[in-house]
Design goal:
With 124 residues, the chain is mostly beta strands. It has a single domain (2-123), classed as START domain (Alpha-D-Glucose-1,6-Bisphosphate, Chain A, domain 4), CATH 3.30.530.20. The protein has two helices and seven strands. The chain has helices at residues 14-21, 115-123, and strands at residues 2-10, 36-44, 48-57, 60-71, 75-82, 85-96, 99-110. The chain has a seven-stranded antiparallel β-sheet. A hairpin with a 2-residue loop joins β3 and β4 (60-71). The longest helix has 9 residues, at 115-123. The radius of gyration is 15 Å and the shape is globular. The two termini are 14 Å apart.
Length: 124
């Protein structure tokens, strides 16, 4: 398993950042460049969103099912499951001077023929 962490400053109020990031739609693939090709919304409630994506990343096609648990307005947790990998990303928001800090922590477990690459990513 590998763990990736990233922080980003956003010049917007925390609630606006939360609302934008958690407004999952079938039209979202147009925002991802060419990574996500198609999204199908499975269910959507105030506490949870489930969708399926198809796309291509680093030359590898994928299909995944994503469950997002919502904890407004401070965080959301996305669980990604596919034949290539399983991952969990925790997105946390914190108000700071002039905007919002977005912290993302992702744990990835590669599956199938990609499993050996988990070690390379960890040490590379």
């Amino acid at each position: 398993m590998i763990r990736l962490e990233h922080s980003k400053f956003v010049r917007a109020p925390k609630q606006s950042v939360y609302d934008w990031w958690t407004d999952f739609q079938e039209t979202d693939p147009s925002l991802s460049g060419r990574i996500i090709r198609r999204r199908k919304m499975v269910s959507k409630s105030p506490a949870e969103v489930i969708y399926e994506d198809e796309g291509r990343m680093l030359g590898v096609s994928y299909k995944d099912r994503v469950r997002v648990r919502l904890f407004p307005p401070d965080k959301w947790i996305a669980e990604y499951h596919s034949s290539k990998l399983d991952a969990t990303s925790t997105y946390s928001l914190k108000e700071v001077d002039g905007g919002t800090q977005l912290d993302v922590a992702t744990e990835v477990e590669f599956e199938g023929w990609l499993r050996p690459f988990g070690g390379l990513a960890k040490w590379g």
